[in-house]
């Protein structure tokens, strides 16, 4: 009797996996692209492209070394909501979609300019399969076209796109910082404007050039940042510890460019609020090395000359930063620098009064930008001989 | 030498760990949202520390009550204070409270498992397995429960701290600044944190089983201090990583924190999978204690065998656990469990302490 009881219990407890899913049978999705439907009759809908990777195809290519068919499949569906597009796919894709390994979400600029991004990304944040760390990009072209290329290094475009972003902190300051779904949700929750990396297509590669501004009030894309504006953003927020600054010479004519490579930088933003006037003191300090110099006169063994160059670099950085801030105030009219943070922390009471029209308040703020540059060394060669051609 | 080999009595460490793991339960995962929603600002984490201090104060009062009746547990001495009829009634409502508490923990665990791991397995089935495991443990008596806790405790603490360390690189100090914005928000935050300290009243029952009851105060202080510090760390980290506004929107903030950990191109890409068993363990420990106390209550009232008491509450727990129709009703149930604890676990024993003092009783 006892044995029978144990057997019956064992049958229930030890058997079966209600939720088993064979890994080979899953449709692993690594990228999602969201576009506006081409058909204007469907303007209230979304066109969603899911990129399925085909693991067999990748592994066979690694083994044989030949590049056969593409290792991914794109499936495009148009429906009024994102969840609906996913369910719609079940009607013709044989594998159940599996989002645990989603890497990138690309939204076309056209859609992002007209749609509330909080609403658009809300589904991704809600679904428990999708991680908060999924990278988000805005694309210049239709988002789907980014997923149709055949990159050489990484065979799957969505994974390739995710990997480019690893370059940004140390190699270049001209890329907007990476932003994830979780970050976007965070920015909206705290009513902060922010920037999203801007991806564009060039032949068979995706370039990440600058970023686009998302206004926290309208929750839409309101402008594109130039290279310089992106750099100013990265510097003010200490988001990048690298990149180069090109300076067009130390003399008046500015004919002999040289390049300063940033090794380390730090920024200090102090708000001052007096008599209803908000003034920011921004202090940026850079350390780095002179990587390249075209002038025959250059002689870095001479400290005076190096100091002259430092001064030229300081002026160059200052003009980039000042112009960018001015543009943010006059043209974009959005505080995408998160300058509200120091103000909120230092003037909490005043902050509560003006927080709902912060962008308006920001456009009236004054800025004192102060830059200091330290040239630490100049690589292996210090001067050219003979001095004059 | 009998005392040295006495394995049925509880050591000081076992009491400390027992209190800690009973307090750490469902609250751990939802606390940051509740604190920040109530306080509205980042200094909510101070409320956690203050409530912890308050909890230690309450513990001392409960211990004072216990000390008047050494060797007896709450169910035994309440009838000595107010007579067997009222005492029996108090035992009955306390038992009802523990049954509801157990049902809530069971349901919360089942919801979590369904949401994050087994989305097609029926909730009822996970609950039955969970209750079955608990029954097996509870039949072993309190010494078995607390000895198992000693095994779980390091794992739960280490894993929670590991999550904090791995996500520390996302910490932004600005999110939790300014540090101080007046006392009002902190007071408001305290009202939300009280519910996360449900379980401290188990000292009423376990002090009688201690090997060295004179060490109970030390054990109680550590037992409350450990969850308090852990809670404070969790609230600070979640606040610093998610920000106050974002935390208010999340159902399980700590879970989201675990999900935001990014270890690229590695087996640990889905780190939260390792975290779910941890949370299940911490719920299981709470469930085991309250299940045991519910069974003890049944046994005291109806004077039945241990097995009868344990098996008779299984259907009750199951039915009550299945009552909430959706997740919001489940959270409401949790809030009511918290309020009942304030009445049944704190207010009534303290009234008994007063009565006992007035009547000048002492065993």
From TrEMBL, chain A:
Keywords: Germination, Lipoprotein, Membrane, Palmitate, Signal. Gene3D superfamilies: Nutrient germinant receptor protein C, domain 1, Nutrient germinant receptor protein C, domain 3. Residues 217-377 form the Spore germination GerAC-like C-terminal domain. GO terms for biological process: spore germination. It is found in: Membrane. Pfam families: Spore_GerAC (PF05504), Spore_GerAC_N (PF25198). One of its GO terms (cellular component) is membrane. Transmembrane segments: none annotated. Residues 19-198 form the Spore germination protein N-terminal domain. It is a lipid-anchor. It comes from the Bacteria. Belongs to the GerABKC lipoprotein family. This is Uncharacterized protein. It comes from Pontibacillus chungwhensis BH030062.
From TrEMBL, chain B:
This is Spore gernimation protein. GO terms for biological process: spore germination. Belongs to the amino acid-polyamine-organocation (APC) superfamily. Spore germination protein (SGP) (TC 2.A.3.9) family. It comes from the Bacteria. The chain crosses the membrane at residues 12-31, 43-65, 77-101, 121-139, 151-169, 189-208, 220-245, 274-296, 308-324, 336-358. InterPro entries: Spore_GerAB. GO terms for cellular component: membrane. The keyword Lyase does not apply. It is found in: Membrane. PANTHER family: SPORE GERMINATION PROTEIN A2. Signal peptide: none annotated. Gene3D superfamilies: Amino acid/polyamine transporter I (1.20.1740.10). It is a multi-pass membrane protein. It comes from Pontibacillus chungwhensis BH030062. Keywords: Germination, Membrane, Transmembrane, Transmembrane helix, Transport.
